[in-house]
Give the backbone structure.
Amino acid sequence: MTVLDKQAETRQRLLEAAGEVFAEHGYRSATVRQICDRAKANVAAINYHFGDKAKLYAATLLHAHRCAMENATVPPPDAAKAPPEQRLRMFIHGMLRGAAAEGRPAWQVKIMTREMSEPTDMLDAIVEHGIRPRYEFIKATIRDLLGGEPTEEQLRLTAWSIVGQILFYRFGRPVITRLYPPIRFDEPEIDRIADHITAFTLAALKGLRKETP
């Protein structure tokens, strides 16, 4: 193993150990010593690879968010040209693939949940670069589906309702698998759930259209 390989391995160990410690204790309570002990690394390694605790946390959080999104299909650049019903299904299916993905370390979900409940400055960066583009995409899709002149509140609440249906399959999984043990979140099942959420949403939007000026 080369020196560069060893450095990369140490950096990854620190990243994984930091993720576990931050997920367990939160950013403010976690200590550099706890992270280095778990990673079996020298305390100086954090400064060498990341700079300080704050930068290590930022790198860990971004790593967790990237892993969460790597299975989520991103709408292609020309998606805006597709019919709005197709764009809605595309958005739901892509987000569902990310939310229902199996095999990720538990700390990745837990650290993102902690960041939501105990936000740091890093949440602003994640929202702006990772979440807002998708949010604007689904709002534009809803606007086209509703027609007329929907209010910002209608767009906002409808977008959140759609996302809420998707996130249920991430955070509700322990209950889902106990209520219906045969379920497996494989591609055919994700397709079926995406079809259902799409049909359910389109039916709701049909009702909302009557209220849109």
Summary: The first helix runs from residue 3 to 29. The CA atoms of residues 75 and 90 lie 7 Å apart.
